[in-house]
Amino acid sequence: MDSNCELSHVTKAYLDHYYDILNTMICDMTSVTLTNSISDNFIKQMIPHHLAAIKMSKNILQYTTNLQLQSIATNIISEQTKSISNMLAIQCKCSTLTNSEYDLYLYMNNFNKIAETMFMKMGSATITNDINADFMREMIPHHKGAVRMSNNALMFNICLELKPILYAIITSQCKGIKQMQQLLRELDNC
Fold first, then answer.
1. Where is the DUF305 domain (predicted)?
2. Which pTM value belongs to this model?
C-alpha cells in the first residue's frame, strides 16, 4: 500500500473490503491440499482466484459511477462465474490425470513465483482517493497472474477438457487488461 494523501471514508471502506478479499484469496490459494495432478491443482487454486475477482468487482460496483468501469466489472463477474462453473464440471475427471513428481515440482515452482509476484503487486498497489483507478491498479496484476498461471499449466500434460478453459482465461483477461490500462490512462490524464 502506497498512499501520500489522506483517504476519504469511502476510499477507506472500499480498501478495507479489498484487503479482506485479497487476504482471503491468498489464504485460500496457498492452503489448497495439492494432489499429483496439475489439472486438479490448477482448478483448486484458480477457483479462489476467480472468486476474489468476482468479489473485487462487486466491491467496486458499490461505489463507482464510471460507466466503462461498471461494464468491465460486470464482465469480470459474468466471465469468471462461468469459468468457475466450467472448472467444477470437469474437476472430477481432470483429477484422474496424474503427473510425474518432476513435472509437479516444475509446475508448482513456476506457480509459486507467479502467485508471489501477483500477491505482492496487488498488496502494494498505489492507492488514492480515486477508487476507480485503485481498482484497476489492483485488478491488472490479478489478471496478469491468471494469464501467467494459465500459460504455466499449458506447458505440462493436463486434462484436455481444461485446455479450452485456460485459453478462455487468457483471452478474456488479456482483453480486460488492455481495457483497464486504457481507462487508467484516460483517468490519469483528467
1. 41-184
2. 0.95
